[in-house]
From TrEMBL:
The organism's place on the tree of life at top rank: Eukaryota
Family according to the record: Belongs to the cyclin family.
Source species of the chain: Pseudocohnilembus persalinus (Ciliate)
Protein name, entry field: Cyclin-like protein
Key word Cell division present: yes
UniProt xrefs under PROSITE patterns: CYCLINS
Segments forming domain Cyclin C-terminal: 218-341
Length: 351
């Protein structure tokens, strides 16, 4: 047995060596060849301007000593977790903010002839329930919602394919974010026969083609967690202030008017409004301004929209059953049942 094995190893090594020798004899391509046809791979490499990637380096002003101290404190707390790459957090989040993908046409629902904004809200609320049923990580839901919006922006879809699109996006995001994602047949089963696993596979291929395989983007949850860490009221990521900001973030899924804002803007506005509702001394601090590059004035409009939508949800719970039940649980400190009082005369800093 060992003789056969040794013979196989020697033969494999010999063939590998021959292939390497032949490869070395080949003339290496000149990446600076100006005669390369326009639009070719060589041209794209030379120009470093391949579609789908942004090579620009965001320029952020130097932080003040007080802000620098906050950054160092967070980096010190995260030092024990190598996956958080604490030494590069400020640069990473500045880059993510600079390169985030925004819906280029926030009014895309007007061009959809078979589905409406209410149907969009119903689908998203249903996806939240499916997300809870499968016990997926939070990032799966945020990625799935973003994939749906970016696909609908570019392609019209019929009503009978709308649920298929939703479950396919959740299936894709689970494969990206989960270590052990649910099987495709499990995703098909929750549609009660409306979709088969073959339908999901076909829709997956179509979606990847439309989005040019540009699937992974920084979500509003990524920015929310970062901005919350910079706020002493939310730094632990398990306080009422933080969960209210999370609740506001997921409520924003259900109203298409929030498509006009970037992911970072919605996250910043959620933190800002949460501090407003809990009447904190500081709504949006210096470190958050530096990291997000949003002044208080720049996030106030989105915060107002979030506030009025939150009030509407309390009066009319239509299309919001899934997200409200989720945040009524003990895990989120029953934050959906919080009573909100608002006094217009209490402070000039109010919304």
């Amino acid at each position: 047995m060992s003789i056969v094995s040794d013979h196989f190893t020697r033969a494999f090594g010999r063939d590998l060596t021959n292939i390497q020798v032949q490869h070395d004899k080949l003339q290496k391509p000149n990446l600076r060849n100006k005669s390369a046809p326009r639009g070719s791979i060589l041209t794209n490499l030379n120009n470093a301007n391949t579609r789908g990637y942004n090579y620009k380096n965001p320029k952020v002003s130097k932080p003040t000593p007080a802000v620098e101290q906050i950054y160092k404190q967070i980096a010190k707390e995260d030092k024990h977790n190598p996956s958080l790459v604490s030494d590069y957090q400020v640069s990473i989040f500045s880059y993510l903010r600079f390169n985030q993908k925004q819906i280029t046409n926030p009014q895309y629902m007007n061009s959809q002839t078979s589905i409406t904004s209410d149907m969009r809200a119903i689908l998203y609320d249903w996806l939240i329930k499916v997300h809870i049923k499968f016990k997926l990580v939070d990032e799966c839901l945020f990625m799935a919602i973003n994939l749906i919006d970016r696909y609908l922006e570019k392609t019209k879809i019929s009503r009978d394919k709308f649920q298929l699109l939703g479950i396919t996006c959740l299936f894709i995001s689970s494969k990206v974010e989960e270590i052990y994602p649910p099987h495709i047949k499990d995703f098909a089963s929750v549609t009660n026969g409306a979709c088969t696993k073959y339908d999901i596979i076909r829709m997956e291929g179509q979606l990847c083609k439309v989005l040019e395989f540009n699937l992974c983007i920084p979500s509003s949850l990524v920015f929310l967690n970062r901005y919350s860490r910079l706020d002493k009221n939310m730094a632990s990521l398990n306080s009422k202030e933080y969960y209210l900001a999370r609740y506001l973030l997921e409520l924003s899924f259900l109203d298409s008017k929030f498509l006009q804002y970037t992911q970072a803007n919605i996250a910043a506005s959620s933190v800002y409004l949460s501090n407003q509702i809990f009447d904190k001394k500081e709504f949006w601090n210096e470190a958050q301004i530096h990291q997000s590059q949003f002044s208080e004035k720049e996030i106030r409009k989105c915060a107002l929209d979030l506030y009025f939508f939150l009030q509407d949800v309390k009066k009319n719970s239509q299309f919001t059953e899934g997200v409200r039940n989720k945040f009524r649980g003990q895990k989120y400190l029953e934050i959906a049942d919080i009573s909100i009082t608002y006094n217009n005369e209490s402070s000039n800093r109010r919304l």
